[in-house]
Design brief:
The complex is a heterodimer of chains A (142) and B (202). Chain A is mainly alpha-helical and 142 residues long. Helix content of chain A is 68%, strand content 3%. A two-stranded antiparallel ribbon of chain A has the order 1-2. The relative contact order of chain A is 0.04. Chain B is an all-alpha fold and 202 residues long. The termini of chain B are far apart. The chains are: A mainly alpha (142), B mainly alpha (202).
Amino acid sequence: MKKKDIVRLKRFFQLLKIEQDKIKPVPSPDFYCRVACGLQKIGGADKDRSSYFSYPRRTLPWALVTAAVISVIIVVCLLHAPFSPKLGVDEALFVLTPEVIVLESLSETEYSDSNGELFNPDSKSDAQNSIEWSNRICMLRL
Amino acid sequence: MRESMDMFIADGDGDKITPVLTADESKWRELVRLHAPYLFRLIGRFFQDRQMVEDLAQETFFRAFRYRKSYRSKVPIKYWLARIAVRLCYDALRKKKNLKELSVSDISPDAVNELETRLSCGNQGENTDPETGLITRDFLEKLLAHLSEKDRMILILTAVEGLTSKETSGLMGLTTAGVKMRIYRARRSALQKLRNVAGGTG
């Protein structure tokens, strides 16, 4: 780069500086008020937030994840409730469909004793049992 | 590092300001009063629009307040604020370029003649009319518009604001050697543009 060019460029930047300094922006009193209000807001928001949600950007994803996990747990509990092994036949009557109740009642009759012979836990006959169950089902449907 | 930041040590800056970075907003108001004029001047080097300058200065203080825990007391607060402001200016310049591409062909021949006269005779203070000053400034900035945002900022920080290469490298997040290389290339490119527009060898 020639010396003449360097001088020319130097003058160019001096001129730019002079022109920029002529219209130098100065902060207005309104600017200080706005900044003070903004700082107060940011400071207040920081104090209100717990350490778990210390960063605003993290709040929403965590809230969504928590809501999703809770809803999944509720759905799983609801689906598993009717088939809980803790429920007896009498309790299940109120939640199972009639078809399942009939199957349950049929399987209950097939118990075997120590000799390997089938026996009925109820003293009533199969015919009596089935009549009783169908009556119960009819009552439930009503 | 500290030696290269002497110009960033402002009056009233120092140990008594450091607790501000972990303390209440009233002390931050003092900080704003102390450093706002400098930030306005610095941001004003890159933008003519007053509203833009105010918005960027405001955002600088908000960002500094939000991330005050990341401040290292080894560097002056003025330098730290300047660094945030320069980053914001860089982002804003990049966005602005996407919206409006500047062209030297928009410049009037009168402005070219005036610039040529002022560059040749070195008489730079004669123009006192604010409107003409605005036109001249616009023209001068358009001459640098062909440079990349980074190069333009480096040139303005060094040649207009008067920072050293080391200080500029710290503000821009570049190495000193990288800044020197960019200054050299940008100067050459600006001179070429100046020759094309103002015509001739002077």
